[in-house]
Input
Amino acid sequence: MLVVIILSLISSTHASSFPIECPKCGNLDVPYPLSTGDNCGNFNYKLYCNNNSLEFPSAEGFYYQILSINPNENRLIISPPLIQNNTCQSSDLSLGGLRINETSPFNISSRNTVMLFNCSGTILLSPLNCSSTSPCRLFEERVKEGKGCQNTLCCSYLKDSSMTSRHIRVRIGGCSAYTSVVAMKSGDSIDDWQFGIELQWLPPTEIVHFKIDRVLGIIP
Ligand SMILES: *[C@@H]1O[C@H](CO)[C@@H](O)[C@H](O)[C@H]1NC(C)=O
Ligand SMILES: *[C@@H]1O[C@H](CO)[C@@H](O)[C@H](O)[C@H]1NC(C)=O
Ligand SMILES: *[C@@H]1O[C@H](CO)[C@@H](O)[C@H](O)[C@H]1NC(C)=O
Ligand SMILES: *[C@@H]1O[C@H](CO)[C@@H](O)[C@H](O)[C@H]1NC(C)=O
Ligand SMILES: *[C@@H]1O[C@H](CO)[C@@H](O)[C@H](O)[C@H]1NC(C)=O
Ligand SMILES: *[C@@H]1O[C@H](CO)[C@@H](O)[C@H](O)[C@H]1NC(C)=O
Output
């Protein structure tokens, strides 16, 4: 009589290729899945390491410097574009502002207070806060970079689901400059404002493979 013993060992492993973390860029770690090269990270999360500065590419091909990364919350903060000296124009104005590719796993988080400057009057028909108490007034009056925008119509809004989460729009004839503050709380002094645009990413869906090892033992 033959007794067949079948032992199955089921072990799970991560996708065929192990996640490889990219090297540091300047003084910033580049945690998985963020990617600065073909041999590390995940290619859907492509960033650029340019002269030790880590940069996020917009759909229009403008590169925004990354200031910090929080891998535990899948968030990173990019620098708002410069408002060029003595003008009220963001350096990405000719590209229409910040636009993130529709197919990208990144979006603009709801913790940003976005401020728009030098807006045309039609903006007053929008639900934005364009009142004299809007925080954008403080930027115009108190921040050196905002001087070029002084006495222009400005508005602010909290980025949320009612606004597209992949676009901050500026244009000639609309608003010509913008900035953003992350996690602004009412009552915060302007010195506490953390300038930046916070992005969030959807983590990759790792495929889990089940490896089945069978051990066949034949006992007489
Ligand atoms: C690289 O960055 C350094 C320091 O910020 C700067 O002095 C240098 O000009 C940059 N080089 C290039 C090629 O951009
Ligand atoms: C945006 O997405 C499209 C389609 O997925 C792709 O062809 C294009 O290269 C992307 N643009 C950038 C700047 O990544
Ligand atoms: C902007 O102004 C600063 C100091 O006020 C100066 O150092 C810089 O060169 C100026 N930049 C441009 C593009 O004019
Ligand atoms: C405001 O925007 C218009 C274009 O919409 C531009 O021509 C003008 O120079 C801007 N104002 C300032 C103060 O920069
Ligand atoms: C605009 O923002 C200020 C400061 O956050 C707030 O006090 C005010 O109520 C807001 N006004 C409108 C119309 O939302
Ligand atoms: C942005 O993406 C995150 C993660 O994918 C999602 O949880 C969040 O709701 C999105 N935010 C907005 C404003 O669409």
